[in-house]
Write a structure and sequence with these properties.
Residues 254-280 are annotated as: Disordered. This protein has 331 residues and is α+β, with helices and mostly antiparallel strands. It has helices at 4-44, 53-56, 296-301, 324-327; strands spanning 63-68, 71-77, 82-83, 94-97, 102-104, 113-121, 131-140, 143-146, 152-155, 168-173, 179-184, 201-209, 212-215, 242-244, 284-289, 305-312, 316-323. Helices cover 17% and strands 30% of the residues. Strands 3, 4, 5, 6, 7, 8 and 9 form a seven-stranded antiparallel sheet that branches. It has a four-stranded antiparallel sheet with strand order 10-11-12-13, with no helix packed on it. Strand 5 and strand 6 form a beta hairpin.
């Protein structure tokens, strides 16, 4: 027979056994509520997004397009500032970062974009193997979008006897017209550069129009970024024999060797004023070096287009891409 104390202890034990599950249940519910609250708060916060390309662009891991003579091929990606194509281990061929990032508005949309120089190097010793190229990345809908076409490119002309590469560098931003670069006027190497085709350095404004790199000349223009064969048609030192092909072209030259690329957009006529009431559009002429002979492979890579010199009546000239079928008739 239990004692009074025993009875009290038994009751206490039964009460405790009833109380413990209740407190445990409340504790579990509290923890679950706390967890749900923490999850809701974290999930309700907006996703972390970059507000500009300057916050998110990492050049050393950027995507870009390889090219063949300026024409884009497959899309690849840098890995810690370097890209090595598969199967090129023997000659050490790779693309590497060759400049710092230059930020500027490249396409006039008031968003800051990115540009940089990449370089292809190998151990082949072929002067027409290594190159430097200007690449663009646009800031579009809060993400980085690589431009397929190179903004400009230059053979390095590196050989054992000539270890120094060709000039190609970004010198300054030029928003909203792109960036200013320095490069050679003629994309040739060594013995291929005759005295009449001197390789000299010059500055260019390069930007983007409708997704294509163009020479903007610091204005609202759109000219081809390719170096015109033979360099400057107005340079007396070049002594080139140019052929006027204006009457043979059936369509306007384009900014890139691609049938859907925008047509070249040159200088506008001066605005009419009391002193110039009859301002007219400039006369445009198209010319090409008489000695230019594109190979079958060149025409195949460039979709049948060749670079031509375009001269406006305002003593201004640029470059464009025209159909070789129309050009070759007078050469």
């Amino acid at each position: 027979m239990p004692t009074e104390e025993g009875s009290i202890n038994s009751n206490t034990d039964r009460q405790t056994s009833r109380i413990k599950p209740r407190w445990m249940a409340l504790s579990v519910i509290g923890i679950l509520c706390l967890g749900v609250c923490i999850w809701w708060f974290a999930d309700s916060k907006p996703e972390s997004t970059s507000s500009s390309i300057e916050d998110s662009f990492i050049l050393e891991n950027a995507s870009f397009y390889l090219f063949d003579q300026g024409v884009p091929q497959e899309k690849v990606q840098l890995n810690q500032g370097k890209y090595s194509p598969p199967g090129n281990a023997d000659n050490g061929a790779h693309v590497r970062v060759d400049s710092k990032v230059q930020f500027a508005d490249l396409d006039g949309d008031q968003d800051i974009d990115a540009s940089a120089i990449l370089e292809w190097v190998d151990n082949s010793g072929d002067k027409y193997s290594s190159w430097r190229a200007l690449y663009f990345w646009l800031w579009d809908d809060n993400k980085v979008v690589p431009v397929k076409w190179p903004g400009a490119w230059q053979w390095n002309c590196v050989t054992k006897d000539q270890p120094k590469g060709g000039a190609l560098s970004i010198t300054s931003p030029a928003s909203p017209f792109g960036v200013v670069i320095e490069r050679n006027t003629n994309n040739l190497c060594g013995d291929d550069i005759l005295d009449k085709k001197a390789r000299t350095d010059a500055s260019y404004f390069i930007g983007v129009k409708k997704g294509y790199p163009v020479v903007t000349a610091g204005q609202d223009l759109a000219l081809a970024t390719e170096s015109c064969t033979g360099g400057d048609s107005d340079d007396p030192a070049s002594s080139l024999k140019y052929t006027n092909i204006t009457d043979t072209l059936k369509s306007d030259p384009r900014v890139q060797p691609f049938k859907n690329a925008p047509v070249v957009d040159g200088p506008r006529p001066p605005k009419k004023s009391p002193s110039k009431p009859t301002a007219q559009a400039p006369k445009i002429e198209y010319m090409i070096d008489k000695e230019f002979e594109p190979s079958d492979r060149y025409l195949r890579v460039h979709d049948g287009f060749v670079p031509v010199v375009i001269v406006w009546g305002y003593d201004y000239q640029g470059c464009g891409w025209a159909s070789w079928d129309n050009v070759k008739k007078l050469l």
